[in-house]
Specification:
Elements (H helix, E strand, L loop, with lengths): L1 H64 L1
């Protein structure tokens, strides 16, 4: 019976280690996804700002040429 317990303990330790590594990797990916989403939102805001600026510049240029 002692051998079975030792084998079961070793197997459980290996399974626990594998699960821990998988969990850690999942958390890293999740964190990276959140960061990427935030960066994308920031870039979207910058694009909107540049779009407004381009519209104003276009309007001024049209008035100057008219």
């Amino acid at each position: 019976m002692a051998k079975k317990n030792k084998l079961l303990n070793e197997a459980a330790a290996r399974i626990g280690t594998a699960m821990g590594k998988a969990n850690r990797t999942a958390h890293k990916l999740s964190k990276a996804g959140v960061l990427a989403k935030k960066e994308l939102e920031d870039i979207s805001k910058q694009v909107e700002s540049l779009k407004k600026q381009l519209q104003k510049t276009t309007k001024r240029l049209r008035k100057a040429l008219a």
